[in-house]
Amino acid sequence: MVTAAAISTPRAAGGIAVIRISGDGAIKCAEKVFKPYGKAVSEMEGYTCAYGIIGDGCGGKLDDGILTVFRAPHSYTGEDVCEISCHGGVFVADSVLQAVLASGAVPAQAGEFTKRAFLNGKLSLTQAEGVMDIISAEGKAAHKCAVSLRDGKLFKSIKSVSDRLQTLLGSCAAWVDYPEEDIAEVSEAAMAAELSELSGELSNILETYNSGIILKNGIDTCIVGKPNVGKSTLMNLLSGCERSIVTDIAGTTRDIVEESVRLGDITLRLADTAGIHSTKDVVENFGVRKAVERLGGASLIIAVFDGSCPPDTDDQRLIELLSQADVSEKILAVINKSDKGTTEDWQFMEGRFLKTVTISANDGNSAAIIEAAVREIFLLDNVDLNGAVISNERQRVACYNALSEINAALETLNLGYTLDAVNVVLDNALNYLLELTGERATENVVNEVFSHFCVGK
């Protein structure tokens, strides 16, 4: 495989920049650019560093820095790897990279180094995806899920199912293909029991998808309510700063204000919308329409009501709107302004939506109440962050397809079809599982996975 190089640190001013080189010619490339104060680069052992001069390949000096050498196969990519650490600056890092490329390396593509780690058997495909998840993690829970994926928890769980499936397929094939040999007959009852267990295991893994996606990407959240109920105050409470303008004048928010905030270990992608109410103001009416449109695309709707006043026609209109089937699944009703006293007229809200809480958005402790309610709605406390968690659509589809094939095999078996027919369906299931782990993934699948990586990783 050709020797590739890229800057592996952000392209911005900083303390240091790292230029990574990987491939059979990595040592030779580094030797042309880096001159250690000591033994030659070619004499350096793996896992060793040297301080020296970084040259431009034409006798000029670019910087002084550190060279770290990793010898194959004991490196991230499984190949010879050299990493040059120079002072962090866009110009100097680009200059060092250009010198490395002039010495025989080619520019690395997106995810090049992790892709090589996968192709060289250092990582499974799901572990490689875990690397990207670690980089993009925005909170503690997302990071824990990513580390679990990188450590191979999902791979091991899927591998366990696929190994048992392969054993089952092997036993069936041997008995079907060599009837004259003294091979024990496959018990259909035992096969059905094994398939039922495998179906259950895949179902449990598949159930982690929604939580995995929420912890990884956050929850697309829409804050709605009539004007002046405290939506913007709640937005500012959760954001930890004055993100929305707060006044006593109804209708202050005319457009959708967006912000990503961390609520404990959960990320909420908040949208504070214009107050939903009847109005003749053209600008306000436009904002109201946009707010209503936003409801359908939200994963969580926080509906805010002024608990210090009895419900009016605008409140009733919002409640009816939220009761529609396409938006009623994930609604957190917030009875706000408890500091002003809550009228008994709001008792009818209990049990009307998935969760109802009473708070004062002016009280900092209310954020914890909102967090607890969100965790309950999305069952996040039931997720084992250190276990096997599906974190993207590719993994979900492969797992779902494998589960469907195993269930189809069970049905085929129960209908009395021959083991040949059962084997065909089980072979399909195995292919989906091996595609998930990367053991039998097509080139297109692999390329798609690594296309989402940044250059340098």
Structure description:
By secondary structure, the chain is of the alpha/beta class. It has helices at 26-33, 90-102, 112-119, 125-136, 140-150, 153-177, 188-206, 209-217, 231-239, 282-295, 313-322, 366-377, 393-414, 419-437, 443-450, and strands at 4-7, 16-22, 34-36, 48-55, 61-70, 81-87, 106-107, 219-224, 257-263, 266-272, 300-306, 331-336, 355-358. The protein contains 15 helices and 13 strands. The model is unreliable at 241-256 and 276-288 (pLDDT under 50). Strands 3-4-5-6-2-1-7 form a seven-stranded mixed beta sheet, covered by helices on one side. The two termini are 17 Å apart. The longest helix is centred in the middle third of the chain and has 25 residues, at 153-177. It has three domains: 4-108, Probable tRNA modification gtpase trme, domain 1 (Gyrase A, domain 2); 132-208 and 389-450, tRNA modification GTPase MnmE domain 2 (Four Helix Bundle (Hemerythrin (Met), subunit A)); 214-382, Rossmann fold (3-Layer(aba) Sandwich), CATH 3.40.50. Helix 4 (125-136) runs antiparallel to helix 5 (140-150). It is flat. Helices cover 44% and strands 17% of the residues.
